[in-house]
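Researcher: Next sequence.
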Amino acid sequence: MTDNLGHISYTDGDVDTNRSANPSLNEMVNERYSRRQTLFGGMATATAAFFGTSLLAACGDDNKAPVVSAGTAGTSNSGRVVTLSGTATDDGTIVSTSWTQTAGPTVTLTNGNTATATFIAPSVSAATELKFTLTVTDEKGKVTTSDTTVSVSPAALGFTAVPKSLTDLVTLPAGYTATVVYRLGDPLAAGVTAFANDGTDSNYAQRAGDHHDGMTYFGLSATGTPDATSNTRGLMCINHENINQSYLHPTGATSGNRPYGEVIKEIECHGVAVVEFARAASGAWGYVQASTFNRRITPFTPMVINGPARGNAQLKTVYSPDATQARGTINNCANGYTPWQTYLTCEENWAGYFRRDASDVTARAGTKQQTSLARYGKGAAATGNYGWTTATAPAGDTNIAKFNITIDATKPADGTGDFRNEINQLGWVVEIDPYDPTSIPRKRTALGRMNHEGAWPGRFVAGVKPAWYLGDDAQNEYLYKFVSNTAWAAADAGATNRLAIGDKYLDAGTLYVAKFNADGSGQWLPLVFGQGPLTAANTTYPFADQADVLINARLAADALGATKMDRPEWTAVNPANGEMYLTLTNNSSRTVANTDAANPRAYTDPKVGGGSATNGNANGHIIRLKETGDTTEATALTWDIYAFGAGADLDATNINLSGLTADNDFSSCDGLWFGRTSNASGLVKPLMWIQTDDGAYTDVTNCMLLCSQPGTVGDGTTKTITNTIGATSGTQATRIGAAPGGNLRRFLVGPKECEITGIDSTPDGRTVFVNIQHPGENGNPGNITSNWPQSQAGTASGRPRSATIAITKNDGGVVGL
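Model: Next structure:
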């Protein structure tokens, strides 16, 4: 630099030429911090935010910008509602406020243009940070931002266990609400009168049936097309398993020869319903009475017989002389589904409905038919449930006659002139297209004939043959698996001819039965004609062909040496790892001498509240298996027992083997279901829901719904227990999973004398639907023992009604989390 050059000098910019009133940097910083504006994330974050946005925004006509805070850092778990609570103040007017996510798994913000926004914490497998920026702009265009972070951990049970209860109410954890949606007798078509609930109602072909059971929700778009993502409108397929007979009539059922009208009413109360459910803007769920999708499928509904048994002589009747058609479905218990959006309903205790006279026992003595009938519970003469065949039908009406399997000696010996073979037309899995009310349901005979409890699918993997797992619900029956002959092609999920896709995957495949070994291994044994004992040379039952094997699946499983189980009920598959769970509800015929590793307990269960003790496996257990190679095509498996039902007060060494407490003890597990993979309840650490149908523990509590997060096969230990009934004792080694502890909790207790059964959710998991079956089942019109669901609304009067409820979390989160 050179000085004294006349009037010119080089100042290096060290001259103040700005005469405006704009503030200096120090003044701006001092002003901002004098107002105690603090940005989340520490000084480094605050400085970056300040210089990145606020400094420029402050270059207006005054020096004041909005004061903003995004709130403190938070924590949550997958599936829970997270609230972002920001604040913003300004001397002028704030014209816009918005939240923006800047890091972490993408979430959908609700009210993202306000200072308080919410979102559902996403599914994560480990603690994960989600970052958000709150941006506020005032009327002068000045912008201020602030950041915050939410750390989300994996899904965890998010409710306090409900205590046991004997009240006539549905009891839920704090923070939950139950709404009754669909009840026995509700009208399902325009013009059908409201239900009187006094026994005078009829036309159950257009009303809700009784004994709501297994069900599946199928999403429906606003335009009435399939939409697997819809959380506000859907078609609910619901099984109507049985009836509370006396409540269906003014003073109970007529004894002796039954009136035709009474019988038709009782039969129509069975079957399946397809019902449109919709959620109002208020959030309340209801059903749509006049929906064109509504449909009752009853024991009278025409059906098609598909698969290997189609056309077989054992299925010929006067209704279908060529054995390709069937009429109706009955005693529909659990269920299943397909990824091409159809419903699988399962025929369970169907044999009891049939009449068989002594003359028929004589006529079939010594034949294969007699062997088959005996194996399926119809070996002796019987009048049939509810005495339906005593009614006199109008001329030409065979709706009631079909329940009489007695041979008419004046008719052709092939069965085409009477209903001697009608019993063989039941015991199948039936596929229904809920979206097409004109479609004809199909009986899928490749899945075998038994007391089908359910047909739950394994995971669908492209290029791998899919499987469905099937329980046969009776004492000492078996677990089955059907594996399709066709590998899964994901494009089929979107097909419009859904029953044709069912033909592709469900009409040809291999039916297997399970054998559980003492060392924790197991095998799937194929029920294939010509292999092993499944031939015409079998002396117990000479099999004629593959159709004969499937029609008589129980006899085939006997011949293969399958493991007899303690009443195999519902199956469910963990969507995270493919492991299959099976409820074994109880078994009064299990003795100390015939226990095995997979069915290890035989004991005396006392009645705490009075009454006779129960022997056998009174409280049931849940077994689980892992397919070798984690594929549905496997023929080998490993297994252990996830949980043993028991009262918390029972012997922990030999009976309460899972260490159950007052928060999670249960008896007679029945329904079983995992959360959907479309929300956090079915991902990473899926929720497994357990429902009970109990007779052993009802002196202590009504039936219940529990929620759990199970571990994996092999996470426990082996143990040898001592079984004792009276003076008989013996030891049995078994494989026990890790104690559930706090990862199993009681979520719901039902009203008096009910069963909790049937469960599904909306895709987002924020509504869970549950069925309350046969409340007050031990009563009658002269002695009503439950007033539910009226009691739920505070009215202690009226006949009880089976019903479907919708359960929601008051804060809008995923139910159970």
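Model: Confidence is low (pLDDT under 50) at residues 1-20, 24-61. The helical segments are 25-34, 42-57, 260-268, 358-363, 368-375, 498-506, 546-551, 553-560.
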